[in-house]
Amino acid sequence: MHELSIAEGILELARRHAAGRRVVKVEVQVGHLRQVVPDSLQFAFQLVCQGTALDGAELVIAHIPAAGRCRDCGAESVLDGFPLRCAPCGGLDLDVIAGDELLVDALELEDEVATNERMGHGSHV
């Protein structure tokens, strides 16, 4: 289940960028060619986030369809299945232009840094 390693990567990236703040939502783009099962990624994400600053965070997955540009006819089309084939001419010589994305697009964070104890004015660490 490669979704578990993807979820761990999302967790680490979000934790680094959150800089101690609680993460409320993580938005990711996942291309069709990555062959990620959204429900499995959701489950893995919730599992790896338990007990972290991302515990309870919402994972929003934007599915990006595969698309290609045909080297034979020049047409751009959505690539629905395998083998990847140009919709207008049926050609197999394609440049993939979308669908291989796997990126964290946005984080929604709480304003305050999460700490175990609140320190009052003048408190020293």
Largest sheet: 3 strands, mixed
Number of separate structural domains? 1
Order of helices and strands: HEHEEEEE
The pLDDT mean sits at 88
Tell me the distance between the termini: 43 Å
Per DSSP, what share of the residues sits in E-state strands of 2 or more residues?
25-35%
CATH hierarchy, class = Alpha Beta
> How many beta-strand elements?
6
Helix content range:
10-25%
- Side by side, the strands of the main sheet go 2-1-6
| Overall body shape | elongated
Number of helices: 2
From the alpha carbons, calculate the radius of gyration and give it in angstroms. 20 Å
- The poorly predicted ranges are 115-125
If classified by CATH, what would the architecture be?
2-Layer Sandwich
CATH fold-level assignment: hypothetical protein PF0899 fold
Structural class: alpha+beta
Detailed description of the structure:
The protein is of the alpha+beta class and 125 residues long. It has a single domain, classed as 2-Layer Sandwich (hypothetical protein PF0899 fold). It contains 2 helices and 6 strands, in the order αβαβββββ. The strands form 2 sheets. Strands 2-1-6 form a 3-stranded mixed sheet, covered by helices on one side. It has a 3-stranded antiparallel sheet with strand order 4-3-5, with no helix packed on it. The protein is elongated. The N and C termini lie far apart (43 Å). The relative contact order is 0.24.
Quickly list its features.
three-stranded antiparallel sheet; three-stranded mixed sheet; 125 residues; disordered C terminus; 34% strand; alpha+beta; hypothetical protein PF0899 fold; 6 strands
